[in-house]
Design goal:
The structure holds 2 protein chains of 2 kinds.
Chain A (H helix, E strand, L loop, with lengths): L7 E3 L4 E5 L4 E6 L2 E4 L2 H7 L3 E3 L1 H11 L6 H14 L2 E2 L2
Antiparallel strand pairs in A: 1-5, 1-6, 2-3, 3-4
Helix pairs in contact in A: 2-3
Chain B lengths: L9 E5 L26 H13 L4 E5 L9 H11 L2 E6 L6 H10 L3 E6 L4 H8 L4 H13 L4 E7 L7 H10 L4 E6 L4 H5 L1 H4 L3 H17 L4 E5 L19 E4 L5 E2 L20 H7 L1 H5 L16 H4 L4 H8 L15 H10 L17 H8 L2
Parallel strand pairs in B: 1-2, 1-8, 2-3, 3-4, 4-5, 5-6, 6-7
Antiparallel strand pairs in B: 8-9
Helix pairs in contact in B: 1-2, 2-3
The chains are: A alpha+beta, B alpha/beta.
Chain lengths: 88, 372
Amino acid sequence: MPDSRRNIRLADGYRLQWEEAQQADVLLFPEGMVQLSSSAAAVLKQCGGNSAEEIVQALQAEFPDADLRDDVLEFIDEALTKGWIRGD
Amino acid sequence: MATDTGGPLWLLAELTYACPLQCPYCSNPLDFAAQGKELSTDEWKTVLRDARAMGALQLGFSGGEPLLRRDLEALVAEARRLGYYTNLITSGVGMDETRVAALKDAGLDHIQISFQASEAQLNDFIAGTAAFEHKLAMARAVKAHGYPMVLNAVLHRHNIDSIGDILDMALELQADYIELANTQYYGWAWHNRAELLPSREQLQNAQAVAEDYQRRAAAMKIYFVVPDYYSNRPKPCMQGWGRVFLTVAPDGTALPCQAARQLPGLQFPNVRDQSVRAIWKDSGAFNHFRGYAWMKSPCRNCPERERDFGGCRCQAYLLTGDAANADPVCDKSPEHGRILETVARAQGPRTPVREVPFVFRNTRNSKALCSR
């Protein structure tokens, strides 16, 4: 069943950036930060207003050899719960 | 005896000790009025650049009241250009809509506004100035300009019972986060400690209310910072001395935490004389309580030392007279009784707030305390 969530984007005040000193992407927010795994960063980089299905498709195109759908949707759930991203 | 360490991740830039508020729990040093000349814009820019080059990522502009610096927008712009996440920690006094917008244009990520209470009378009494209505207006302006809204309220025995009203106010303002921070007893708060520490009953009631709102108000993140006097284990203060945090005071003194300046026997380096890298890596003061070799018993052999680093050096100094002792919050400390005595004294009835002999944080009182 297609996932119906749309317009997924980073929450207000959240910023994603590559951090040379840590050799990792980090998520920055008021008075906090998280070092991201490369897969978490890959999903968050797609969160610029895409729907959940568009995010899956984009990542599937980038990594055609893996079946990413379940993992990506699960991460989107987790990131929504943590308030990192918002969606309609 | 340098310990191998990464760079600082957090930089707290205390731009000025000047402040229009007089909160009697301020964390600034009692003798702030006697401190040296503030760093210039260019000196601050050098500090920002050097700390960023070492990997510092979160930047707090604090004070005093940082809005009193007319170069705040320029410093925010430079910080953002360097890649910091920029936090402004403010009373809201000195802010207007134009400035909220200008700071947004400069790239400011987040504004945290402090409240002293949920209503004007108590708020303005504690702050020592009529600020409450303006704070409300500025909180709304912050939200309207697309910042995340973060509110902060310092709790003590005269406002902790109205925690529900504080949370209702935060909900009404549509805050994204509210930090309910129990007073930490350094600086002015140490001086006024007897009049600030809540009773155990007050604390338990407040904690229950905060937990209730945490369940019901899912859209707002609520942080309740427990006062460590009511704990039997110390907090991992600053996540360890010289491990993660770097504070630079208004006159350029570099400190492992805001309160460290009071510790005797340490020569804190100044960014006017040395690079941030040299200060962080090589200075005696930053290496003094790094690692575990400095610890005394019971910390030295404690299996929890890697979790809490022996607690807070300033608290050890203030309560036991020796900063190398275990933080007496810990019930393994032979001096834990000093915490228990203080807590026992806080169980009595509450004096009406206007009758409390607070020593308010202002220049006059600071000068009087220095001359003692």
